[in-house]
Batch of 2 targets.
Target 1
Amino acid sequence: MTRTPVTVTVTGAAGQIGYALLFRIASGQLLGADVPVRLRLLEIPQAVKAAEGTAMELDDCAFPLLSGIDIFDDAKKAFEGANVALLVGARPRTKGMERGDLLEANGGIFKPQGEAINAGAADDIKVLVVGNPANTNALIAQQHAPDVPADRFTAMTRLDHNRALAQLSKKAGVSVADIRKMTIWGNHSATQYPDIFHAEIAGKNAAETVNDQDWLENDFIPTVAKRGAAIIEARGASSAASAASAAIDHVYTWVNGTAEGDWTSMAVVSDGSYGVPEGLISSFPVTTKDGKWEIVQGLKINEFSRARIDASVAELSEEREAVRKLGLI
Ligand code: NAD
Ligand code: LMR
């Protein structure tokens, strides 16, 4: 039986993450090896030609699951009928730009994109915001899509989650496949908190197994939280293939479910769980099933974790206040 293609809209399609992401979507890694996809790409007018070049290459791969590609420089058209939207394109911070300037510039992108999603996306739309500052950009888009359930707007902390798995696996000398229940709390920024107190290595508590507070505080947490900056320093450009890979993981897990006995990290709209103010888009441990996510409840949060979660959440509250003052939400 031929399945109806799923419409996937990708913004920033001509950028470096876009280039690493589109081929994986078209090959079936985003939704499943039996799910045909139709791509709708959004770019700014100056980058449409480059997006057309990428579309030519996508054609040249002859992916059996790719049923069509359309390219737009108009958000309203790009999100028409979208079932999945990957909001990658954003205004990068440039020299001399204050945080307020960055939030304002991105408000100019994510407000109309939220409105376009509200106006024309499919009823089952799922949105992942990758473009930074991802949590607050997701909040801006969500606030301008009043007819779309708020739980459809998420921001990406799966890259941080994957980075934490990699660092812990090296320290413990195990495969990442042996680690379960990693958590990233808070903002996708240097204040994020990668939490191993609930993580398990081969079924045993990870913090107890590693038993190294100095490594935890002075190596693991700063390495994960500042990895984005370290990649920029080393590569001369921000992470691209790993960010694309994490976006694939995020959507695949959201659609296809978390494994029994495990969870993932997603920045989702807070319902007040774990003292995170309602409405903020903050990273939590979540399970997914049948295309829906749920925040894992009932975890005991120790003092060490509490202080770090609170610090990252305070930053998110400040960002929300800043975009409120700018009239963006
Ligand atoms: P890039 O500069 O290579 O590409 C961005 C693309 O977005 C460009 O082609 C640009 O033309 C396009 N764009 C800009 N405004 C647009 C708009 N209004 N509509 C559509 N397209 C638009 O950047 P990149 O390396 O691909 O990174 C994209 C974003 O992802 C950045 O904000 C980056 O900081 C962020 N990022 C997030 C994570 C995460 O974990 N959440 C990780 C890595 C990067
Ligand atoms: C990352 O975590 O790699 C990026 O968010 C860094 C950045 O500022 O683009």
Target 2
Amino acid sequence: ADPDPLQDLCVADLNASISVNGFPCKPLHEVKSNDFFYDGLSKEGNTTNVFGSKVSIGDVLAFPGLNTLGVSWNRVDFAAGTGVNPPHLHPRASETLVVLKGKLLVGFITTTHVLYSKVLKAGEMFVFPRGLVHFQLNVGKGKAFFLAAFNSQNPGVVILPTTLFVTTPSIPNEVLSKAFQIDAKVISDIRSKLGS
Ligand code: GLV
Ligand code: MN
């Protein structure tokens, strides 16, 4: 989904003082093999949190060699039991995932409220169309993890529970009570459990 590159490579200079769509290129004479290497997805993420999951991100900010190339990866780990990657969407990319360990229920919802979902085991893939809400739930006995590939160097993520309940400043209670048909007590309960 990203624009096409206009040169072979353009390792991001994340600290450049000018701002462009993406990042300016670091000077070619400073570019090293290690600029095209990233090991941030090699380790299991720490899933000790309310969701029981951890997304390790390999976008252009973590891996500057991806700049202008239109691709990136994430790794998502799930705690044994009920680890969930909560409903979220990526504004700038479709996502394909391949399960490497465990058993996961994955699904996405269309703009006409149809859920497409399936239980996947190691080696199996699924695709979430760009911009649609999706989730994954560990339904196996042990831990699980997958790798996900995106057709953007910077897919972005809108996580629905935190986007709605953990903002600065807060979305007015009147909005959330009417939208979800719940009272202020339920709202503050959700907020405190999600850590705000
Ligand atoms: C999983 O859906 C992810 O966005 O990493
Ligand atoms: Mn996703």
